[in-house]
Amino acid sequence: MKNIAKLLVGILFSALVMAPSYAGEMSVTGGATATYTTNGDDASTGKNLGISNELDFTASGELDNGYTWKYQVQLDGTSTANDDTRLEIGTDMGTIGLYVSEGGLSKELAHGVGALGTGFDYASPSTFVTSYDVDGYSNVQYHTPADMLPFGLNLKVGFAPDMNDSTLLSAKESNTTISSQAEGRSLTTAQVTAAPIDGLSIGGSISETDSEGGDANGDDGISANVGAKYTIGQVSVGYTEGGYQAATGLTADDETVYYENKFYGIQFDVNEALSVSYNMDESEKNTRSAVAVGASAGTKAIVTMEQETLQIAYTMGGATVGIADIEVDNADYTQGKKETQTVISLGISF
Questions:
Q1: pLDDT tens-digit readout, 100-136
Q2: 36, 192, 196, 215: most buried by Cβ count inside 10 Å?
Q3: Domain range annotation of the chain
Q4: How many C-beta atoms surround the C-beta of residue 322 within 10 A?
């Protein structure tokens, strides 16, 4: 995989050296969302009023040989740090991209159903453990050309050479974080999507780490997800199933923790302005311990966290008013812990 990454970088810079570029164009897009959030039950955080923003500064152009290029810096969240950056070169043979905290390939949200956003990804008082993804690090990717494969198939492969490197580095800078393994901790993610018939989209992904747990501490981490969404008329339904296991070297030698997830939802568009949706997200945490001294079998503990999300969205031009009501059982994988949350939002896009 390391040799593949070197090849992709070589192709990218060869294209840049061989072809001069014309003057590009700059655009600014984004949005702002104001929310009023109330939380209840158990470990809630009370009432909160907040405003989030997301601004994309995008420059694009074309090289003399017809190749295209795109550079983007994103300002988002509560910070103005340009932590999300991408540089992409489009060729007849596909797209080569360099990303920092961008370029997510994991498909745990392949079902894509939600009037305001996909289930727990839109809002949740709890944290779901789902998958590895290269967008948490600096990474290089290759994407197959559009329409090259039948049935709308598209393949994307991403490689993060150092999982210690999760911040934006300037050109020629070195990562100051010292890895505990001589060969470093790398991550590879592959994604496949397809649209075989009208209204149906299918997506899957797999990620695997290398040397994350150290050379002598067991298996590396792995995660996989596959899901689909089908829209017919005013109704959309979706389902995703997946699993995640961190490198065994990250936990005690006699214990393995892995997660099995099922996410599904249904959405009804009443008209062009009004939509309602329902999501059920289930994440099962399995903790398996080795056989203790004097025992004949090991032990296994299972906790299933469930979140139900009901959303209503009303769109007026570039503004969307929404309400999301959320209930969580066994929140944060803690048996018996319940959390509720209501989010009232106003989103403006430009």
A1: 889 999 999 999 999 999 999 999 999 999 999 999 8
A2: 192
A3: 2-166+185-349
A4: 22
Tracing tokens 């694009």 back to the chain, one arrives at 60
Q: Which residues pair with 269 in a beta bridge?
A: 275
What class has domain 2-166+185-349?
Answer: mainly beta
Low-confidence ranges of the chain (pLDDT < 70): 1-23, 41-46, 77-83, 165-184, 212-218, 249-254, 290-298
DSSP count for the chain of H helices, then E strands? 2, 16
Q: What pLDDT sits at residue 93?
A: 92
What does residue 79 show for φ and ψ, rounded to 5 degrees? Answer: -115, 155
Handedness of CA 36, 39, 45, 46 (dihedral sign): positive
- 170 — phi, psi (to 5°)? -75, 160
pTM for this model (two decimals): 0.83
- Pairing of the two strands 47-62 and 68-77: antiparallel
CA distance 26 to 23: 10
Secondary element (H or E) of residue 100: strand 94-100
90 Cβ neighbours under 8 A, 6+ residues apart: 67, 68, 69, 70
- By CB atoms closer than 10 A (0-12, 13-18, 19+), residue 151 is exposed
